[in-house]
Amino acid sequence: MLRMAALSKVYRTEVLETHALRDFTLHVGEGEFVAVTGPSGSGKTTFLTIAGLLEEFSGGQYQLDGVDTRGLNDRQRSRLRNEKIGFVFQSFNLIPDLNVFDNIDVPLRYRGLPASERRRLIGEALERVGLSARARHYPSQMSGGQQQRTAIARALVGRPRLLLADEPTGNLDTHMAQGVMQLLEELHRDGATIVMVTHDPALAARAQRQVHIMDGQLIELAAYHDPRHDPRPRAQDPQPRALDLPPGAAAAVMGASDVAASVASARAPA
């Protein structure tokens, strides 16, 4: 599903060269739930923005669902991103003057789907996250947990091949965070491929696999099996293994022009 090989990302200025990722190799198989952890500044955000085709990488290879992403222009990356990837962000990124239905409708409008098909897909997504009764509510009328569920519905509505979640519980209290994690776990059990960035080790432990990033490199890969979903005895569980690697800028989620385009598109007649 997601293959990165010897990938690097370098930010350059006239006087400084910063290696955000170096010799970064990772494979996420279809149907996996992978948690990405690491301290601030380790390269997690850079990894996520490159995985989400929000910025280009400097070297190496990145294949998404069999598509080589090197050399794609902006339009090609946007199309691939819209067709293959769903995003869930810490700050929800809902458009405040659009209701729940219209927020979820935004990515579908970019695909040019007819109104009847969009209504059907939105209805299914709302039911999946338990918000069917909130379709005409605005973000300001909902709790943080409900807003994040709306964001998850928006990410799912196009039936993406990969779901990228950036600190999806970071702005939520413990109770709401548990609800969002349970929903992600349900989606994983239903076959979704999920990559989640988190600072919370307890949440990371609930993923199927954990990847740790330090100084732009993958330094630890641990496998985890939830005994509630895997009946095998703990003695048979794979043990964490260290990868033999050499020692060793957040991207904008949605620019002002993207927001304006989204609002205009959502308000346009079907």
Structural notes for this entry:
- This protein is an alpha/beta fold.
- The protein contains 8 helices and 11 strands.
- Strands 6-7-8-3-9-10-11 form a 7-stranded mixed β-sheet. Strands 2-1-4-5 form a 4-stranded antiparallel β-sheet, covered by helices on one side.
- Strand 4 (59-64) and strand 5 (67-68) form a beta hairpin.
Please outline what is shown here.
The protein is of the alpha/beta class and 270 residues long.
- The CATH topology is Rossmann fold
Distance between the termini: 33 Å
What gyration radius follows from the Cα positions, in whole Å? 19 Å
The helical percent reads 25-40%
- The average pLDDT score comes to 83
Total number of β-strand segments?
A: 11
Feature tags:
270 residues; alpha/beta; Rossmann fold; seven-stranded mixed β-sheet; four-stranded antiparallel β-sheet; 8 helices; globular
